[in-house]
Amino acid sequence: MIRFYSTNDHGVRVSLEEAVLRGLARDGGLFMPEQIQPMDSSFFKKISSLSFQEIALEVSRHVLKEEIPVDQLKKIIEQSITFDAPLIRLSDEIYVVELFHGPTLSFKDFGARFMARLMAYLIRGQNQNIHILVATSGDTGSAVAYGFLNVPGIKVWILYPKGQVSMIQEKQLTTVGHNVTALEIDGTFDDCQALVKQAFNDQELSQRMRLTSANSINVGRLIPQSFYYFYAYAQVKNGSGPIVISVPSGNFGNLTAGLFAKKMGLPIERFIAATNRNDSVPKYLETGKFRPHPSIQTLSNAMDVGNPSNFARILDLYEGDLERIRKDLYGVSFTDEQTKGGIRELVEEYQYVADPHGAVAYLGLRDYQRNVKKTKGIFLETAHPAKFLEVVEPLVGRKVDVPSRLQEALDRKKVAIELPNDYDRLKAVLNSLD
Ligand SMILES: *Cc1c(COP(=O)(O)O)cnc(C)c1O
C-alpha cells in the first residue's frame, strides 16, 4: 500500500486518498510518496515499443502499487491521456517535446485531467461535494477547470491575479461555467496562493465545506507529469548517449515530476531548471542560499513565481544536500529580451515557432550545451504559441494558427467575480455560494 509523508514531518503517514484530497499536509508541508523505487530494467528495454498510454499505465502502477485496481487505473488513463506528446527533432542535439496538445493547450492538462479522474475515483460513493480551490498564474486554472468540467460531486474555484494573465488565458479561465467559478483577485499570483493556503488552514471553513487543492502542490498532479518524461525518452532512444532535459520552471512541479522519473530509473543525465527573472532556484544552485522574492512579471507569465512551492520537495528528495542537487540539476535564468531572442532564433535556425515558456527552456538547453557539456538534449514546450500571439507573432513575422478549441473559448463571454486581496472577502464568497 502506498503512503505519503509530509516534507515538514517524515513521521506523518497518510493514504493516497488523504494526500490527494487534502492537497497540503496539516503541518503545511507537501506530500511525498514514502518510496520512489526504480522500475524494472525490463520496462526500459521495451519502452520504445510501448504507446504513451501503455507507458502511463506501467508508471502509474509502479507508483500507486495495488492502490487502484488495474482496470480502474486503465480507465483513468484512457480518459486523461487523450492526446499525444510528440517529440520533434530540431537537430542532432536539440529535440523538443510538445506538451500542449490537450484541451487548454498547455502541459498542465496532463496533471489536471489525471488528477480530476483520480479524485472522482477516490470520492466514489460519497455524497458531500468537494471544493477545489486553485491559485493560478495563468495556465493551471484553465487546465484544472477543463479537467474537472462536469465531474460530478466537484466544484472548482479558480483564483487568478487581475491583469497578470494574458487575454487568452483569462478567456480560458472565465468561460468554462458549469461547476467552475473564476475569482479575479486584485493581487499577484503569490497573493492568490497565500489566500488558498489560508483557506486550507481555516478550521471553521473546512468544517463547513470539504476543500482541496489542485495546484502543483497536489501530488495527484505530479504523478501524471512524470509520464511524458518516460515517453519522451522512449521516442528519442536510439541507443545513443546521455540526454539532458530542460524544463521551463515556475512553481517547479514539472521539474519535480522529472526528478521522480529519474528516481524511478529513467536515465536522464541532468535536468536544466530554466527560469525567467524569477530565479530563486537558479540562484540557490549558484549560491546555496534560497531567497524567495515577490514574483516579477515577465513574458513567460506562467512561470512568474518568486517562491516556488515545490522547492520543498526538491530539497526533500535530496535531503537538502546541495552537492547532490547540483549533480542532477543545473539552473539558469533569462530576461524577457533573451526570451524574445530565443523565439527568433528558433524560427530562424529551425523554423520552429515556440511560445515564451518553451523559448526559456530552449535557451536553458543551449546555455548548458555551450557552457557545460555538449550533450543531446530535449526541451519541453509547455504551451501552444497561439496562447501568446501578441508576443510571438511580431517576433516570427507571420500569423500563428489558433486551434479551434481555443477560438471557441475566445468567442465566449468572460464571467468572473472580482475580489480584493482580502481573505475575509474570499471567505464570504465561498460561504455564500456553497
Ligand atoms: C505552469 C507552467 C510552467 C511552469 O511549470 P511549473 O510546474 O510551475 O514549474 C511552464 N510553462 C507553462 C506554459 C506553464 O503553464
Compact overview of the structure:
The chain is of the alpha/beta class.
Structure write-up:
By secondary structure, the protein is an alpha/beta fold. About 45% of the residues lie in helices and about 15% in strands. The chain contains 20 helices and 14 strands. Strand 4 (about 85-90) and strand 5 (about 95-100) form a beta hairpin. It is globular and about 55 Å long. Pyridoxal-5'-phosphate binds near residues 252 and 253.
Topology at a glance:
Elements: E1 4-6, E2 9-14, H1 16-22, E3 31-33, H2 41-46, H3 52-64, H4 70-80, E4 87-89, E5 94-98, H5 108-122, E6 130-135, H6 139-148, E7 154-161, H7 167-174, E8 180-186, H8 189-200, H9 203-208, E9 210-213, H10 219-225, H11 227-236, E10 243-248, H12 253-263, E11 270-275, H13 280-287, H14 311-317, H15 322-328, E12 329-333, H16 336-350, H17 356-371, E13 376-381, H18 389-396, H19 404-410, E14 417-420, H20 423-433
Parallel strand pairs: 5-13, 6-7, 6-9, 7-8, 8-14, 10-11, 10-13, 11-12
Antiparallel strand pairs: 1-2, 1-3, 4-5
The structure holds pyridoxal-5'-phosphate (PLP).
